[in-house]
Design brief:
The protein has 223 residues and is mostly helical. The protein is built from nine helices and no strands. α3 runs parallel beside α6, α3 packs across α8 and α5 crosses α9. The two termini are 23 Å apart.
Length: 223
């Protein structure tokens, strides 16, 4: 399973390095969202700092949909899914590999968006540990859930519109918990690093990783 996961992750990341879709399309969309949010909030500093955690996660969530759609589209060609099934790769390994590849892409996106939050909103990081831990847990959870629902929507003609409808409501806990954890990291709330929101992010990630390992195979076998 782990060997197959490394193979799939390496394949997806090599395709992304060559195509540069995330760098040339997804990241600019996320940065543009932050810029538009900044214009909407106006020049006052206080509202921008207060809104920065939520706007960061909204940008991650919506641009993450693009990354997940890109990941699912790699196996969207005629016969590609059949080729994956016949390759002998462990379905759990395929799921973990695609999740890892999406996670790496989201990390790149989040680094750029975090710099944008500091630059455009004047936010200051008070607790780097809380920021990194919440971002890591939220990113893994989003990648796992996105990969799972991407496989569920694969093969359907309306997958481009169905995937956001399936994924975004499920990702709402990450939006809420990530925002609360980032408020703590930026010092806009008095909640500590061991608050329940961080634990919720961890539970979300573990649940979807376990769920994907178990049911990704049957999803791949579906017509």
């Amino acid at each position: 399973m782990w060997r197959d996961g490394v193979l799939v992750a390496g394949k997806d990341l090599r395709i992304e390095v060559r195509s540069r879709v995330v760098l040339h399309q997804v990241v600019p969309v996320g940065v543009l969202m932050l810029v538009l949010f900044a214009f909407a909030l106006g020049p006052a500093t206080a509202p921008m700092v207060a809104a920065a955690p939520g706007l960061f996660w909204v940008a991650v969530l919506f641009t993450g949909v693009l990354a997940v759609q890109r990941s699912a589209a790699l196996e969207g060609g005629d016969g590609t899914r059949d080729g994956v099934r016949l390759s002998g790769l462990d379905p759990a390994g395929v799921f973990l590999g695609k999740t890892a590849a999406v996670t790496v892409q989201l990390v790149v996106l989040e680094v750029v968006l975090c710099a944008g939050v500091v630059l455009f909103y004047g936010a200051h990081v008070r607790s780097l540990g809380t920021l990194v831990a919440s971002s890591a847990a939220g990113t893994v959870g989003l990648a796992a859930a996105g990969t799972l629902y991407g496989a569920l929507a694969a093969g359907l003609r309306v997958r481009e519109t169905l995937l956001p409808l399936l994924f975004l409501p499920v990702a709402a806990p990450v939006l809420v918990a990530g925002t609360k954890a980032w408020q703590s990291a930026l010092g806009t709330s008095g909640v500590g690093a061991d608050d329940p929101w961080l634990r919720l992010l961890l539970v979300f990630a573990v649940v979807y990783l376990a769920l994907g390992v178990v049911i990704f195979g049957p999803l791949q076998e579906a017509p």
